[in-house]
């Protein structure tokens, strides 16, 4: 069941989104060779606590961390660990902010020092794919219009789209209806209405789209070991077009 949000509720989610974006801004200053994803995780949890918020995904279905830290071939849900990031790595930091009971969700992919041209093109294309999808988040369009736009753009650029994970509605719960795939035909799925709040979060691979789970039951990585990146925003559907809640 899709729950529409009123202007006051969207304003509260915007406050969560601003805090999340400010935290990502601080994380960007930390990303360098030698730092570990567990250090980033510790920083994010303290930053949120210092600003009156909590990391929503910690404890969600047993997930033990405040963030997901996905390095190189990890698609998403990577467990933060003590391994230092090294020059040339790429890392996606994904977390959900709970401020006053309302949530915002955003993932950002970062370069660690100087990265390869192939890695940079993957980062750039994934971010562009996110915004291609966001442009379709218009009242009267359908979920499939977002999905199809992302897949068409990404495959035209010769990248594969991960199909096992999707965007979703969000509000007081992390995952609400509707789910937002990043592939599929246009003119399918739920109609987009004013007051819907969703995430769009494409994950693109340099190689094949297939993934496998590590023994921890969470960490999803590319089956062929190729690089993967993800970008994600939370946005509200408004009569004036998509309103991104998780950017400054």
Explained architecture:
The protein is an alpha+beta fold. The strands form five sheets. Strands 1, 2, 4 and 5 form a four-stranded antiparallel beta sheet that branches. The mean pLDDT is 98.
Walk me through the topology.
Elements (H helix, E strand, L loop, with lengths): L6 H24 L6 H14 L3 E2 L12 E4 L2 E3 L13 E10 L2 E10 L5 H19 L7 H14 L3 E2 L5 E3 L6 E5 L16 E4 L2 E3 L5 E3 L6 E3 L5 E3 L2 E6 L2 E4 L4
Antiparallel strand pairs: 1-4, 2-4, 3-12, 4-5, 6-10, 7-8, 9-14, 10-13, 11-12, 14-15
Helix pairs in contact: 1-2, 3-4
Number of beta strands = 15
Largest sheet: 4 strands, antiparallel
Count the DSSP helices: 4
Helical proportion, percent range: 25-40%
Strand content: 25-35%
Q: What would you call the shape?
A: globular
Low-pLDDT stretches are: none
Radius of gyration: 17 Å
Mean pLDDT: 98
- End-to-end Cα distance: 30 Å
Q: Tell me the series of helices and strands, N- to C-terminal.
A: HHEEEEEHHEEEEEEEEEE
Helix/sheet category: alpha+beta
Quick structural summary:
By secondary structure, this protein is of the alpha+beta class. It is 29% helix and 26% strand. The strands form 5 sheets. Strands 1, 2, 4 and 5 form a 4-stranded antiparallel beta sheet that branches. It has a 3-stranded antiparallel beta sheet with strand order 3-12-11, with no helix packed on it.
């Amino acid at each position: 069941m899709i729950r529409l949000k009123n202007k006051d509720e969207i304003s509260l989610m915007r406050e969560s989104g601003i805090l999340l974006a400010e935290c990502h801004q601080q994380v960007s200053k930390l990303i360098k060779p030698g730092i570990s994803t567990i250090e980033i995780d510790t920083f994010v949890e303290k930053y949120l606590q210092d600003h009156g918020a909590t990391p929503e995904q910690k404890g969600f279905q047993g997930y033990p961390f405040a963030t997901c830290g996905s390095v190189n071939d990890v698609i998403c849900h990577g467990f933060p660990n003590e391994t230092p990031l090294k020059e040339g790595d790429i890392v996606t930091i994904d977390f959900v902010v709970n401020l006053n009971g309302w949530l915002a969700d955003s993932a950002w992919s970062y370069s660690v020092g100087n990265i390869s041209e192939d890695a940079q093109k993957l980062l750039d294309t994934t971010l562009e794919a996110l915004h291609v999808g966001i442009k379709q988040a218009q009242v009267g369009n359908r979920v499939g219009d977002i999905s199809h736009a992302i897949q068409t753009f990404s495959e035209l650029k010769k990248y594969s789209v991960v199909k096992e994970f999707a965007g979703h509605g969000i509000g007081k719960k992390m995952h609400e209806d509707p789910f937002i795939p990043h592939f599929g035909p246009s003119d399918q799925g739920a109609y987009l209405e004013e007051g819907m709040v969703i995430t769009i979060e494409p994950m693109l691979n340099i190689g094949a789209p297939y993934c496998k789970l590590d023994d921890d039951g969470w960490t999803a990585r590319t089956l062929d070991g190729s690089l993967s990146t993800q970008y994600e925003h939370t946005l509200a559907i408004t009569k004036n077009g998509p309103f991104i809640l998780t950017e400054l």
